[in-house]
């Protein structure tokens, strides 16, 4: 794949520069959004609230695919990483509010922790940027 076929989007996260990654990468008919938290710049939104952190993280991930002209209906897969099993219902509720009409394939994992201990949720998206499938 040539470099012209790949486009990258930065979100301004301080970790993007220090770790050398892009928020989203489009290649062919796919757009991949890397791990996204509820940080905007150096401010963590929804501290202590897994539902709010999930909503902010998904919104930020959707903003990344919007750079490619895509919205929630283009999302094929979501991944949710949580630090506490007790937060499954709160994060699931946020996911349902955003993706209920879309029903992407979804994975939810409980992990040991994140780079900042205040982070309760991190999400990833995979989107399709080809012609839309007709709905039945």
From TrEMBL:
Superkingdom, taxonomy of origin: Bacteria
SUPFAM superfamilies, sorted: YjgF-like
UniProt protein name: RidA family protein
Organism of provenance: Streptomyces tropicalis
Lineage: Bacteria, Bacillati, Actinomycetota, Actinomycetes, Kitasatosporales
